[in-house]
Amino acid sequence: MKLYSEWTHFYRLFTPPEEYAAEAAAYRAGFVAAAPHAETLLELGAGAGHNAVHLKRYYRCTLTDLSEGMLDLSRELNPECEHAPGDMRSLRLGREFDLVFVHDAVMYMLSEEDLASAIDTAYAHTAPGGAAIFAPDCFAESFQEDTVCWESGDAVRQLRCTEWSWDPEPGDCWFAVEYAVLLREAGRVSAYHEQQRNGLFPRETWRRLLEGAGYAVELIDRPLDDGAHDQVWLCRRPG
Questions:
Q1: Domains (ranges, CATH) in the chain?
Q2: Which of 177, 211, 208, 217 is nearest to 194 (CA)?
């Protein structure tokens, strides 16, 4: 997606880091419950480091992502954190961490095989007695077609975006997210449309793959807007 390559300088307008605070607090609470003495954390698919800016207060963070452009943004925001490029399906750093965190980048796993590979990567890096959290945007049971419009900007750049999530072929393992974006910079306006494909798996598929990798799993609440919540996976690796 252009947002992760040539348009990375607009990325913080899409999702400002401060908007992650409540969500990150829920992940922190889950980690404390599962591994109260944890010190190190690996994030797979860390993107621009917007979760890490909150979690690094508590853990020594190693942040990985497939996009070098996104890692550059994270380095600006989190210079004290270790950064490493890598694909969550195949990354092997050769060491273990007390905690592993996988946020919405896991949505780019479009097949059960890809999802299983990402889970295996997380397990391989989770120390015995440690924990992992997987936080997909939705499950097959909870997906709903949706349209969101928003605007953002600063003194230099302005953004207007419509995001439309829909399922072209219900019953398969992915859905589409259409982005229609207007970007204004230096008095010039650019427009583009782009489609992302996101993975969509039932909770039972998730449970089977997580437990098959070796985790003991449970669902925990994550806060959404207006007092609502959904659920994410808290996983423990037996010690």
A1: 2-137+202-236 (3.40.50.150), 146-199 (2.20.25.110)
A2: 177
Structure tokens at 207: 């449970």
Q: How many Å apart are CA 39 and CA 37, to the nearest integer?
A: 7
- Cβ burial of 163 (10 Å; 0-12, 13-18, 19+) is middle
Q: Name every residue whose Cβ is closer than 8 Å to that of residue 118 and which is 6 or more positions away in sequence.
A: 44, 88, 89, 102, 106, 109
101 and 210 Cβ atoms separated by less than 8 Å? no
Q: Tell me whether strands 157-166 and 146-153 are parallel, antiparallel or unpaired.
A: antiparallel
- Selection from 97, 117, 133 nearest residue 215 by Cα: 133
The two structure tokens encoding residue 116: 């299983």
Task: Judge contact between 121 and 61, C-beta under 8 A.
Answer: no
For residue 42, give both structure tokens: 């690996």
**∠ Cα 122 113 209 (to 5°):** 55
**This prediction's pTM:** 0.95
**What is the structure's pLDDT at 7?**
74
Strand extents, DSSP E, the chain: 40-44, 60-65, 82-85, 97-102, 126-134, 146-153, 157-166, 174-185, 188-199, 216-223, 229-236
Using one digit for the tens of pLDDT, what is the confidence trace for 212-232?
999 999 999 999 877 788 999
Name the region of 56 (left: φ>0; alpha: ψ -120 to 50; beta: rest): alpha
Q: Considering only CA atoms, which of 99, 179, 184, 181 is closest in space to residue 147? A: 179
- Of the candidates 196, 193, 203, the one whose C-alpha atom is nearest the C-alpha of residue 175 is 196
Q: Is the pLDDT of residue 12 over 90?
A: no
